[in-house]
Every structure is written in structure tokens, then in C-alpha cells.
Amino acid sequence: MMELDQELNKRGAKLYLLVYPNKEQIYSQYMPDTIYRHSEYSKGRQLHDFLTQYTNIPMIYPYEELEETSKNYPVFYKADTHANRIGAFVAFQEFMKERYGENQTINDMSVNVKYEGFSGDLAVLTKVNATKERDTVYTLDGADPNLWKDETILFVGDSFTGYLSNIAEMYYPRVHRIDSILFTMEYVDVLKPDIVIYEAGERRIEYFETEDLYSK
Fold first, then answer.
1. Per-residue 3-state assignment (H helix, E strand, C coil) for 18-69
2. Does the pTM exceed 0.90?
3. φ, ψ for residue 182, nearest 5 deg
4. Which of 24, 33, 49, 194 has the fewest CB atoms within 10 Å distance of its CB?
5. Secondary structure (3-state) at 78
6. How many whole angstroms separate alpha carbon 118 and alpha carbon 136?
């Protein structure tokens, strides 16, 4: 991470890390009692605490914010392992708070139903997608124009960056995303981002140690 941070700094870009907590942590109340949890000190929290203590690399781990929002809004799909647009909004606002010291909350936004009957990866995996099409896809409106930033942002990560980039487009004129497996520093040289958000779902957090992005 420090090597990547240094290489990005040479190119005028600032690195941020973002880890999505696992769905079963946010909705732990629905986990069966037969599933034993060894510790509540999660991998994402451990990494956050380590980087905060030993480096200057900012990391966003929006566990508390997602958990609190989940009391009034769905932040993950029921039949999918991914966060929905509301969850992505909450996570991205924590980045905005980290970088600019200002952000919006979900209560500032107009939450609208785009369509219903969505079947996610869990429904497909368990072959019940024909009978479990009960998820709702939402859209959000109401981005504060005062938070518009004339900067270029690049997401490097997994499938969670899809909705994250959608939310970012509400605040930035130039938003790009690339899968971490495909990423090379050439993307930074060509796109010239001001911000690089390196993201991973907590279940894939090992990507941070196995991929030497700075040397690719």
C-alpha cells in the first residue's frame, strides 16, 4: 500500500482505501445461531486500525454508518451479496467526509424505486431466482451542488465499484473504474486522476496484499 501510495503521489494522485463490510456483519441479527463467530474484530477493522497507526494512507471502513442506516433503509440486496445504491451512497459519503470534511446523509436524498423483482447472485447461486425475485432497485436524487468537485476520480476494485461510480457521478465530472485484476499504472498515466479509490469487499480483502499494483 505504501509503495502504491508513493507511485500515485508522483503522478499527482491521492490514494484512498475503501473496504465494504460483509453483508452478514451488517445484518448479523439474521444469521443462524448455529454459525459461531470467533471474534467481532473483523479483518476490515484490523486493517483500518493498522493503517491508521502505521501509515498516512486514509481508509474508509463504513461499518457503523451502514449498520445505522440499515435500521431505516435497506443497504444490501436481500438476494445478493452486494450493497445496493443506498449502501453505496453511505459508503461514498464517508469518503467525502474524509477528503473534504463535508458530506450528505441519506436523509438529504430522495430515494425512489427504479424497479422491483431483481434477482441477485445469491438467488441465482441457490437456483431460486424464479421464486425469490423480491429485491428492489433504487435511484437517488438530491445531490448538493455545493459538493460538486472539478476533479477526476478513478475506482480500482471489484464489483462494488459499479454503484460507487454511479454515486460519484453525482459529484464529479470525470469518473472512471477498472477491475483491480486488470489495473496497471498506465491507467493513471492516461486518465490522470486526482483521486484513486482502491476498493475491496471485506471477503476479498486479501487482494490488498497479493496484488502489487504499483509495479504493474
1. EEECCHHHHCHHHCCCCCCCCCCCCHHHHHHHHHHHHCCCCEECCHHHHHHH
2. yes
3. -95, -15
4. 33
5. coil
6. 6
Q: How far apart are CA 156 and CA 213, in angstroms?
A: 10
**CA 15/CA 41 separation, integer angstroms:** 25
Q: Over its length of 216 residues, how does the chain's per-residue pLDDT go in tens digits? A: 899 999 999 999 999 999 999 998 999 998 888 988 888 899 999 999 999 999 999 999 999 999 999 999 999 988 888 899 999 999 999 999 999 999 999 999 999 988 887 777 776 666 666 666 678 889 999 999 999 999 999 999 998 999 999 999 999 999 999 998 899 999 999 999 999 999 999 988 887 876 567 676
Enclosing H/E stretch for 105: none
How many angstroms separate the CA atoms of 200 and 30, rounded?
Answer: 24
Helices (H) and strands (E) in the chain, counts: 9, 7
Structure-block grid coordinates of residue 203 = 471477503
Q: Where are the beta strands (DSSP E) in 65-173?
A: 110-118, 135-141, 152-157
Query: Which stretches does DSSP call E strand in the chain?
Result: 14-20, 59-60, 110-118, 135-141, 152-157, 174-179, 195-201
